[in-house]
Amino acid sequence: LPKAGKAAGGEQPEAALLPFPQDLLLAAAFVSDAQYNRNIPFKTSPEAVRLYYLYNHWIMRTATYFFIFLNLSLAVFEEPAVYPLPFLVTSLVEVLCLLVFFGRLVHFAKVTLRNVFWKDTKNICIMVAILLSLTDLTICGVLRIYNVRSIRWSRIVRPIFLINFAESRQIRRAFRSIRNTLPEITYVFLLFMFSLLMFSLMALKLFGERNLQTAEGMPYFKNYLEIVFDLYVLVTAANSPDVMMPAFDFSSWYALFFIAFVIVNTYIFMSLFLAVVYNNYKKHLKNEIRKLAYMKHRKMIEAFNLLKEEEGAQFVVREARWKQLVKLVAPDTSNSHRELLLRISDDEQKGFIDKKSFVQLADLLNIQVITLKIRSHPLGQWMPRVYKSAASRFLRSMVRHRGFVWTYDIIILINAIFIALDEETPYISYAEWVFLALYIAEILLKVYTYEPRAFFGKNQFWNWFDTLIIFAALTATILNTTLKSTTKYNSQQILDIVFILRVLRLIRIVDSVQRFRVIMNTLINIVPTMLTFGGLTLVVYCIFAIIGMELFYGKIQFFPANSNAPHALECGNPALKDSLFARGKYCKNNFNNFASSFIVLMELTVVNQWHDILCGGSVTVQAAKLYFIAFHIVMVIIIVNIFVSFILEAFFVEYSLEKSEVETAIEQKIQELGMGVQEDELQDEQLLDNMESAEHDLEGEGETKPQSKGLVFKIASKRYRTVDALLQRMFEAEIPLEDEGPSFEEILNLSPATAVPSNLTSESAA
């Protein structure tokens, strides 16, 4: 799930908040909510504000997530269990989790208005889920006393806690998008089902009376419902061309029927599903984000009104108050960073910040600016004559030259060829030591050239990656060679590690090709947005896994290859004799515990051969196929398509858009102050930073830096601190800053479909 970071004042103990005036604390709470897009209408009394700071404390949020996932993970230890624990232990852990959830809910009730709390559906859902879980746990405990097995039906409500706590607004937004998209999807799905039923009826009339048989000797297209199912599977291409072959063998002309079916249903209708989902998802997402943008704007106006003072004909916030506010909102921000933000907000250095500049503070705080100290190399201080000699300068200029990077790119490619060759050849084995020596020499030369603390800075991902991979490979290779020299060597695991580390070294080529780097950095930047759908997928998987365990537990058993157990070849179920499931040795694909259920659901999501897995699950009754079809509709047709839509939109935003006005203002001010990092390698790319660009600029005495000491700033490659900040980049230009917009109540009452207030122009509303 996306991590918002440490909220304003949230990481400070309550005692640390006491010296600050009440209006400043309240304003900081509004600014923090605007920065992290929290839409909690909290009370404004002094006690409630301090409780609100505590509620948003990062430890409180982390603890909430910990107990949510602990509660979900209990399914691993409960019957049917991967790692069985006594019922008393799991029950006590569950009760502890429920107490934490209840305490979190009570805390939330203390900081919000009473009428708002009881009108909020998510609070009611949490209370109902707690009550159902306790009731089910009590009933199950009583029945176990009398040795009566019961179904833990309340486990299916556990994902409700992940969805409905205030911290999970991203997942709730995804569910709302699905809910709002369902009507349009339903119409397309009904049309698709009509087409499927029509083709099935034609197939029954064409092939039902011709006494054809499948490759397994079963009647071919005799039963209408079986035909509907087989053609539904054909839409996913999982049983193609097997389902067609009996008819095709009978007459080549019958291939036209299946070709027409695939064109209409697989290519047209499935593409139509994606188009409808993409269009509707984008529309509803836009409205949701616009609503958040209005809320953020309104909160910043409220904060301004709390701190404003009259200055001539306008209201402003004094510089001293502004500094206190920023220090309270972002206590981890360095003094130099705060001064940079002040120079941007008070461009003319008047000693105050006007309303327009103040409203942009949340956006300024959401752009991650890296503060880098320019230091001279330690060797330049310890051995100045040697380090600044002509030979040393020539060596360092050679390392900084682009040709040095190209040389090692060629070495990596040659290394890739040697990795693919047979290691048993002595020359190939010796070559590995040569490549390791070259890579180690590269790292040592770079550390010699660039200031070590800058080279191994926390934002220098590729430098850390290279160093760790090379030295891990060196350690594993030495260990592997040492063990090989002994007669008792049989460690395939160490050899596997060596092979993997060698292959991982090839990833370095990604950082050497500019286009690869841009794409990779773009993907890294949208990872938090993808985590939203990771949470959504987790919810769906948990629900279907729990249902699957209750329906299919024990129906399929896995036996080792040499087992003599009865019906071992039929996965422990005589009904599977001669089935595709048994012949394919899919016995481990069962619902006998939570982990294997997740694996089966993952295989069903991939779709390939999912009808064979369904064959194993439906050994009890044919109606069990509805479970697998329902999962396919929910997960593959709806959620996967929405996930694709989400990734497309996020990638387009991150990859295509120019820098925002806020980013441009930050960069311009950095350059005006002469404290910028020049990124010569990305002249044509205005979106992303080179992950290693700082290493070329912070050597302390190179041609690119006039000063030898001091600070420089750069916007981080992962520019946005929150998912919402990235998404709002699309729509925030439509909100006029001079308009205070609707009130909190009006914004909260806006539906996702009508999230645009009427005071906007028709163009903006569109």
From TrEMBL:
Residue span(s) of domain Ion transport: 62-283, 404-656
Alphabetized UniProt keyword annotations: Membrane, Transmembrane, Transmembrane helix
Record membrane topology: Multi-pass membrane protein
One GO CC annotation: membrane
Keyword Zinc-finger: no
Coiled-coil stretches: none
Compartment annotation: Membrane
Pfam families named among the record's database cross-references: Ion_trans
Transmembrane segments: 58-77, 83-103, 124-146, 185-204, 224-241, 253-281, 403-421, 427-449, 461-479, 522-547, 626-652
Entry-linked Gene3D superfamilies: 1.10.287.70, Voltage-gated potassium channels. Chain C
Domain of life: Eukaryota
GO MF entries: monoatomic ion channel activity
PANTHER family cross-referenced by the UniProt entry: TWO PORE CHANNEL 3 (PTHR46726), TWO-PORE CALCIUM CHANNEL 3 (PTHR46726:SF1)
Protein's recorded name: Ion transport domain-containing protein
Organism (species): Falco tinnunculus (Common kestrel)
